[in-house]
Each structure stands twice: as C-alpha cells, then as structure tokens.
Amino acid sequence: MYQSKWRSLTNHIILILGSIFMIMPVWIAFASSTHTREFLFQHGLQVLPGGHFFENYGKILFDAEATKGRVTALQMLFNSMVLGLGFAIGKVIISMMAAYAIVYFRFRFAVPLFWVIFSTLLLPLEVRIVPSYEVVSNLGLLNTYTGLILPLIASATGTFFFRQFFRSVPDELLEAARLDGAGPLRFFIDILVPLSVTMIAAIFIIMFVVGWNQYLWPLLMTTDDQLYTIVIGIKQVYNSLYEGGQIPQFPKAFALTIMASIPPVLVVVIFQRMFIRGLVETEK
Amino acid sequence: MKRVQFGHSPVPYLFVAPQIIIIAIFFLWPAAQAIHQSFLLEDAFGMSSQFVWFRNFEDVLSNPAWLRSAWFTVIFSALVAVLSIAISLFLAVRADEVIRGAKAYKTLLMWGYAVAPPVAGLLGIMMFNPLMGDLYLFINRIGINFNHIQNANDATFVVVLIAVWKQVSVNFIFFLSGLQGIPKSVTEAATLDCKSAERRFWTITFPLLAPTTFFLMVINLTYAFFETFGIIDVSTKGAPGGATATLVYKVYVDGFLGADMGGSSAQSVLLMIMVSILTVFQFRFIERKVHY
Predict the structure, then answer these.
(1) Domains of chain B by residue range
(2) Whether CATH 3.60.10.10 fits B65-288
C-alpha cells in the first residue's frame, strides 16, 4: 500500500503516545508501590522503582494487618479467583445448555422462555441492586460464594453468544447424527460440545475477566472480610488511607492495585487472539 | 431457527431449567420487587408501608438533586462515548496502517480491557491527589487553578478522563477488527484514486465503519451509565455535592446508604425504562444489520 514516509512516521509517534497514555498510570502505580510511604510522602509519585518491592508486596500478601482488615491479599486473590472461575464456568455451562434447548428443540414454551432470557439484557444488576440484595439476604446467602456468584450469572449474554454459534452449525451434522441413532444428549456431548471448544475458550476468558472485575455486587454482598475480593480490598485500603493521622499508606494501595490487575491483564494478553474473537462475537 | 430439530421430549425443559431458575430467583423476583416497591411509601422505621401510586415517581422527577444527577449522567455519557470513540478510532486507523511493530502496538493498546473500573478510578484519583498527584500538580503549575475537590467542572473532567482511559481499549479492539474486515481491494483502489490519507478516511473508511461506530455508541453509553459506578465510587464519590453522581450511583447512595427504599426503587424503575429503550434500539439495529 502506498504510504508516505511522513505518514508512517506520524503513525508511530501517535501509537507510541497512545501506548504511553495507557501504560503510564499503571507504571507509576507500580514504581510507587516499591517505595516506602515516607519516601512517597516527601517526594511524590515515582517513575523509577525503589528497593522495597519484596518488603511491601510480602507484607500485603501474608500479613492481614497490612491491609487494614483481617484478611491477607493472598486470601483476597483466592476469593477473586473463585469468583472469576465460578462465574465463567457457571455461565458457560448454563448458557450452553439453554442455547442448545432453544436452537435444537421445538417445545411448547420456547418463545416465552426465550423472551424471559432476553429480558435480562434489559436490566443490568446495577438497577436492581437493592431488591437483589434483599432476595439473597432472605435466602441466607449473604457472605457465601454461592450468593456472590449466582445472581451475577442471571444474565443472558452467554446464551445469545452460543445461540448465534449453534445456528451457524450445519444442519447436516444433526441429520447424520440422528441417522446413526444419536439421541439429544449424545449429540450434545459428543458432537456439539467438541465443536464449540474454541467458542467456549473465548467466552470463558471474557467471563473470567468480567467476573474478576466485579465490584458493586461483591461490595454489597460481602460484609465478612474473609470473603473480600481483591477489587473490594482496594477500596477498603483506599478508604483507610488517611486513618489514624499517620502518613498515608500509598505504597500499599498501589501494590494491591497492581496485584488486582495482573491476573486479568495476563489472561487477556496471553490469550489475546481468542479473547478478541470472543469479545467481537459476543457483543454482536 | 433450525430446519432440523429434535421432536418433543422432556430434554429441552431440563436444559433450559438451570438458566430459567436462576433468572426467576435472582432476576425476575428482584425486578418485580423493585417495581412493586416503587409504588410504596415506607414509614420511618420500615415497619409498615402504604400504596401511594406514582408519588415516588413524582418525588423523584421533581427532586432537583435527581434532575441534576440525570443531567450530569447525560453530559458524562455523551462526553465519555464521543471522546473514547474518537481517540480509539484515531489510534485504530493508525495501528491498522503500520507494518513494523503492529502486534506490539495492538497489545499495548488493548490490555486495558482487563483493568477493573475501580482500579482505574483509584489510579486516576491518585494522579490527581493534591498531596502528590503529578497531574494535579502539573495542571496547577502551568497556571490553571484546578481543584476537583471543590469545583464541579474540574471533578467532571477527572471522572471523564478516567472513564475514557478505561474504555479506549474496548473501542480500539472493535475498530481494529472492523478495519481489518474492510477488503484490501477497496483500500487499494482508494489509494490509487486519492493520495490524501485524510480524505480517504472520511470518504471510504469512516462510512464503512459506520455500523461499528453506531454499535459502539450504544455500548459506550451503557458503559457510562452502569459500569462507571466503580470509577465514581473510588474517585470522587459524587463530590462535590453530588455534582459527579451518575443515576446509578445515586440509586446506590439513596437506597443503601440513605435507606429510602421507595425513592430508590422508583429511581431504579426509571433507569430500567431508559436502558430498555437503549437495548431495544440496539437490537433493532443489529437485527437489521446495517451493512453496506
């Protein structure tokens, strides 16, 4: 393609500036998290890393006192992992099953049930938090992993994704399978699931990141420190930054921020191609 | 749906059951309750409540704080959507053109998707910390009197900046994949006819990307409405005086911290109506598939 030297040069300059715009805040947070709080307080945010990496991160990971709660960052990371994985697995299984029923069967309530599932797209959790909280509390599910994960799964994005994919699967496959005597269960497990592996992986990655990054729901749901996810932990630490008239704990807040971001960012970067495919396909 | 389907059997019911049960318990029930509560007025102790028709809605719609929040939400969403779309389109066009380092740029610009909104909020507000925030100090040093803790416009600037930063990567991914979907023959023919890259963009590329742009507009508005909750809760908390509280943030503040159930439910229902309109709009568009 024809491209002037000038255009090519500006392309690189613009993209480098864009990359710096994206990375700078995170880099500053990382560099600042490796200094002592006294140093940060005197000299401001840092661009170069200091020598307290192991000290600061070790304290937060293993010493519950450091995070101002009664929970270590390690426990919070574990909780986030449970939420991310539980959300992703639950969502994939439930939505695949529902999509299978909707696409491959003619049954009585198919249309109304489809609309019920569709309606969940209209109302995100954010607009019904107060009653959702009451329901979960009535069921005695506050401060449990179940109460944390299940209400989040009640949305149909995954179902639509699989519905779209199943519809693109050639009809001949089902005909052939039926000729060979495969029933609905057999067809699903032996043919449809193996066919969907890349789709499952793509949606799994996105859902893991979405689950990991949940904020409002865990914030309401968990009053027990032991169940805090790392994203909630950040807020707790941030809220207590100025407590007690001491020098603010900026390095700790930054260290938590970095730890909260590493797992989802790694997942997205490592599985980049699958992730992009999943994202572009789901949203359509 | 499909030409070939399984006949009648209990299997489909078993397969949709898990999803329907979860939706019924954690979606339909709470949503119905929100609607029900929006017509009730509770006494101060939450002991009894009475049916008051649309009074909660009248209260909400005539409440200056709610109107202010609605106005802020509109401005905020429009700014976030337009700015993040413009920036990421600009970056995506450039990233689509480069040959050397294309993969690296792509990775560097897309990872932001994985950052949680409250994390973005915290990073942003630290940059604007009056004690040590580089951006805060810089803006004040170049002679602008900037104070986001007291000035509503400055606070809006901060939350918009953070929300845009967080959203650029998503838009970038969509635009880049949209650009890569444009046939090479089209771009090559355009290059032969027209040397000005800028004119090529406005006459060929941009119209071809119109469906993506429109779709992203809806996605970004939904994002600005709902997902920015985490950003606001960690950065400005709606300060100064509710000037940066979006409608969702206000539902949370009134319902959870203020315990005004009827009012908060009425706000929720109003929000539901707004989102429903947005979603239906989006689906109508997608069903029609505006492609050229």
Answers:
(1) 65-288
(2) no
Q: Is A98 on the interface with B (CB under 8 A)?
A: yes
- Cβ–Cβ of A97/B18 closer than 8 Å? yes
Which residue ranges make up each domain of chain A?
5-283
A94-131 pLDDT, tens digit per residue, is 999 999 888 888 877 888 888 888 888 777 777 777 78
Residues 5-34 (A) with a CB less than 8 A from some CB of B: 7-8, 10-12, 14-15, 18-19, 21-23, 25-26, 28-29
B255 vs A139, more confident: A139
A216-219, long-range: CB within 8 Å, 24+ apart, which pairs?
A216/A125, A216/A126, A216/A129, A216/B229, A216/B230, A216/B233, A216/B252, A217/A125, A217/A129, A217/A132, A217/A148, A217/A151, A217/A152, A218/A83, A218/A148, A219/B233
Give B2-44 pLDDT, tens digit per residue: 666 776 778 888 888 888 898 888 888 888 888 887 787 766 5
In this structure, CATH architecture of domain A5-283: Orthogonal Bundle (1.10)
For residue B82, the number of C-alpha atoms closer than 13 Å in the C-beta half-sphere is: 6
CB contact B105 to A (< 8 Å): yes
Q: Within an 8 Å CB–CB cutoff, is residue B92 touching chain A?
A: no
pLDDT at B285: 65
In angstroms, the separation between the Cα of residue B122 and the nearest Cα of chain A is 8
> What residue of B is the nearest CA neighbor of A10?
B94
Residue A254 burial (CB count, 10 A): 28
> A79 near A265, Cβ under 8 Å?
no
Residue with tokens 């898990």: B18
**pTM as predicted:** 0.89
Provide the pLDDT confidence category of residue A67 given band limits of 50, 70 and 90.
low
- Tokens standing for A216? 């409002």
Contact A15 B98 (CB under 8 A): yes
Examine the pLDDT at A86 and tell me if it is beyond 90. Answer: yes
Q: In a 10 Å sphere around its CB, with 0-12 CB exposed, 13-18 middle and 19+ buried, how is residue B249 labelled?
A: buried
In angstroms, rounded to a whole number, what is the distance separating the alpha carbons of residues A153 and A217?
12
Buried b (16+ CB within 10 A) or exposed e, A93-108: ebbbbbbbbbbbbebe
Report whether pLDDT(B83) > 60.
yes
| b/e per residue B63-92 (b: at least 16 CB within 10 A) | beebebbbebbeebbebbbebbbebbbbbb
